[in-house]
Amino acid sequence: MRLLLLSDIHANLEALEACLAVAPAHDLIVNLGDVVGYNASPNEVCERVRALGGWIVRGNHDRACSGLTDLSEFNLIAAMSARWTQTALLPEHLEWLKDLPQGPMRLGEVEDVEFVHGSPRDEDEYVLNPSTAGANLRMPGHAGKIFFGHTHLQGGFAVENGRMRNFAPVFPTGDEVVQFAMPLAAGERYLINPGSVGQPRDGDWRAAFALYEHNGDAPGAVRFYRVPYEVDETQRRILSANLPERLAFRLKLGR
Ligand code: ZN
C-alpha cells in the first residue's frame, strides 16, 4: 500500500498543485495538518484538499484559524495571518476545519503506523531534537512508525536498541524535482516528517512531501520529494492580501 503524505500546506495553492502534479501513484492520501495559515489561498486549498479525500489530522493553525483556540500562543505574524484567514474563509471551509480530528490517528489497513501533527503525546509539541523524539518513541502503546509534521523540517528520528539518530534526505540544490529513497529497517522505531508543502524551513525553498510504501510485515520504505513551484505567484497573493511581507519573503529562503 502506498501512502502519499502531505503536511503543513498552509494555504499555499501553488506548492500544493506542484506536489500533486509530480506525486507518484498512491492508494491513499494522509494529511498531517495545518491546511491553512500563513499564506493567502485558504479557500482554494481547503477546496482542493477536501476533494482529494483521504485522511487528515488537525494542526494548530487549523484550530486557530477556525476559532477553536485563541491566538495567545502565536507570535505576532502568525496571529495576524490567522486573523486574516478567519475573515477570508468561507463558512463551509471554516466548519470543515473545526471538525478535523485530533491525532494520533491510526488506519486499520496500515498496521503499526500512526499519524500526528506535533507528537504522539501532544498535538502541539515540536519534535526538534533527540530528547523530545526519544521521549515520544519510548512511550508505551504507540506505533513503531509515527509520521508527524509541525516543524516544517523534512526527515526525522530513528531509535534502535536505545540508540537514537536523526536523519534528513540529502538533495542537490537547484530547481529540479528531486527524490530521496530511505528504506526502513526492521527493529528500528521511527518518527518521520514528510516536510512542509507550503512553508519549508530547512533552507530549501522547494515544496516537500513524502511517499510511504507499506509492505505488510516488511519494514517498508519512505521516499522524500522536493518540488519547485511558482513561488512568485504565492508571494504576489500574500502581498495583495496585505499579509505581512515577511511571509512572502521567507518562502524563497525556505525559512
Ligand atoms: Zn505548520
Task: Give an account of the 3D structure.
- This protein is α/β, with parallel strands linked by helices and 255 residues long.
- It has one domain (2-253): Purple Acid Phosphatase, chain A, domain 2 (4-Layer Sandwich).
- Helix content is 29%, strand content 23%.
- It is built from 8 helices and 12 strands.
- The chain has helices spanning 13-22, 42-52, 60-65, 76-88, 91-98, 130-137, 231-240, 245-253, and strands spanning 2-6, 28-31, 55-56, 105-107, 110-115, 145-147, 155-160, 163-167, 178-183, 189-193, 207-213, 221-227.
- The strands form 2 sheets. A 6-stranded mixed β-sheet has the order 3-2-1-11-12-9. Strands 4-5-6-10-7-8 form a 6-stranded mixed β-sheet, with helices on one face.
- Strand 2, helix 2 and strand 3 (55-56) form a beta-alpha-beta unit.
- 47% of the residues are buried.
- Residues 8, 10, 34, 59, 61, 150, 152 line the site of zinc ion (ZN).
pLDDT average, as an integer? 96
Number of strands: 12
Helical/strand content category? alpha/beta
Which series of helices and strands comes N to C? EHEHEHHHEEHEEEEEEEHH
| Share in helix | 25-40%
What is the radius of gyration? Answer: 17 Å
Overall 3D shape: globular
Write the layout of secondary structure elements.
Blueprint: E1 2-6, H1 13-22, E2 28-31, H2 42-52, E3 55-56, H3 60-65, H4 76-88, H5 91-98, E4 105-107, E5 110-115, H6 130-137, E6 145-147, E7 155-160, E8 163-167, E9 178-183, E10 189-193, E11 207-213, E12 221-227, H7 231-240, H8 245-253
Parallel strand pairs: 1-2, 2-3, 5-6, 6-10
Antiparallel strand pairs: 1-11, 4-5, 7-8, 7-10, 9-12, 11-12
Helix pairs in contact: 7-8
Zinc ion is lined by residues 8, 10, 34, 59, 61, 150, 152.
